[in-house]
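Q: Got a minute? One more chain.
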Amino acid sequence: MEIERKFILRDIPNDLNSYNRKEIEQGYLCKGPVIRIRKSNSDYILTYKSKPEFILEEEVSAKHSNELEVPLTEEAYLHLKEKIDGYIIEKTRYLIPLNDKLTVELDVFKGRLEGLIFAEVEFDSEESSKRFQVPEWFGEDVTFDPRFKNSYLSTVESMKEWGKNLF
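A: Always. Here it is, folded:
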């Protein structure tokens, strides 16, 4: 089970290069349920995500999903990459440790989505999500805003197009 919250940011840490990071590209083969392929540094992964049947969004503070990850070979990844719907997403993910053994996954998008930056935090329970003390450098919680879902971002041609959908 994946339990996560997503935030836009007020500020970005000045020392991003001091944190571990991953160079990521990902694409979507299906959006309902989500079937995603991802290259993360030199790892290749196929991910299946579905909504748990017992979770109602109005009753939770975080997004919940069932998630299964399966390793791929580079050859399999490249084969599936030709079959994605929409566009490949490219981003650098910085892994910023917080207290309580939590990690901020700060995504800085590249290519057609350059300029977009947001952060995700994963939790081990709904209770820990609700207790989360949001850092001052975080901005609005956009966990349930569909415009910030990576599967949606894979359909957007440019930041200009994405920005039109903000208001």
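A: Residues 2-164 form a domain with the Hypothetical Protein Pfu-838710-001 fold (CATH 2.40.320.10).
Q: Perfect, thanks.
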